[in-house]
Amino acid sequence: KIKACLFDLDGVLVDTAKYHYLAWKRLANDLGFDFTEQDNERLKGVSRMRSLDILLEIGGKSLTDAEKLDVATKKNVWYVDFIEKMPKDEILPGAKEFLEELRQAGVKIALGSASKNAMRILERLEITGYFDAIIDGTKVEKAKPDPEVFLKGAESLGLSAEECVVFEDAEAGVEAAIAGGMKVVGVGDPEILSKADMNINSLAEMSVKRLEYFN
Ligand code: B16
Ligand code: MG
């Protein structure tokens, strides 16, 4: 029986991808090459340092480890700048309503995000209070598709993997949920997220009733 929903953040609860894109693009331009929105698709759900490696590969640039740390920090400062100014209505359609419905129904809620800025974003959207557990990029060692982030979420809630449903917009995240032995709802392109147990376009399509599908 499903007792908890574990949410990815970027792409599921909020569309921060565009801000990541603007910050990475600025960095790429600084380094002397262009970075398109299509290139940015490859960074979704991927950790900050791995994202940088992909960006450098696209630009055909190589940097020392110290330089990498330096530019990743610069990118994050720009990104955080955008986040601080993000209006709170940038929460994705249906997200707040579904969180509210889950809480009313007594279904536990956890966050499973690769982002080290997750707390800041939840605060900004004023939804921190909905979460019974928050596992983010500051609490995990292994990135998705490793299931660590979701397993830690289930553990914090005192639940087993079979009692949890994960909501993910990235292929690596869907794979992480499956590797953790959890059910998974793909939010977004059903072709990219074909391994998910259920596919939806946004959380506006979701309800506590629909969770019964997994019982
Ligand atoms: P940060 P998620 C991921 O969040 C993003 O999708 C990905 O684009 C980003 O690089 C990663 O977080 C790390 O974010 O630089 O803020 O630590 O989708 O797992 O919620
Ligand atoms: Mg995501």
Tell me the major beta sheet: 6 strands, parallel
Count of helical segments?
9
Strand order of the largest sheet: 3-2-1-4-5-6
Indicate the radius of gyration in whole angstroms. Answer: 17 Å
Low-confidence stretches: none
Order of helices and strands: EHHHHHEHEHEHEEH
- The residue fraction in helices comes out at 40-55%
Report the β-strand fraction as a percent range: 5-15%
Number of strands: 6
Structural class: alpha/beta
Query: So what's the overall shape?
Result: globular
InterPro entries: B-phosphoglucomutase_hydrolase, Beta-PGM, Beta-PGM-like, HAD-like_sf, HAD-SF_hydro_IA, HAD_sf, PGP-like_dom2
Pfam families: Hydrolase
EC number: 5.4.2.6
GO molecular function: beta-phosphoglucomutase activity; magnesium ion binding
Brief summary:
Belongs to the HAD-like hydrolase superfamily. CbbY/CbbZ/Gph/YieH family. The chain has nine helices and six strands, in the order βαααααβαβαβαββα. It is α/β, with parallel strands linked by helices and 215 residues long.
Account of the 3D structure:
The record marks 113, 144 as: Important for catalytic activity and assists the phosphoryl transfer reaction to Asp8 by balancing charge and orienting the reacting groups. It is an enzyme of class 5 (isomerase). This is Beta-phosphoglucomutase. This protein has 9 helices and 6 strands; from the N terminus they run E-H-H-H-H-H-E-H-E-H-E-H-E-E-H. Strand 2 (108-112), helix 6 and strand 3 (133-135) form a beta-alpha-beta unit. Strands 3-2-1-4-5-6 form a 6-stranded parallel β-sheet. With 215 residues, the protein is α/β, with parallel strands linked by helices. The structure holds 1,6-di-O-phosphono-beta-D-glucopyranose (B16) and magnesium ion (MG). Magnesium ion is lined by residues 8, 10-12, 44-45, 169-170, 173.
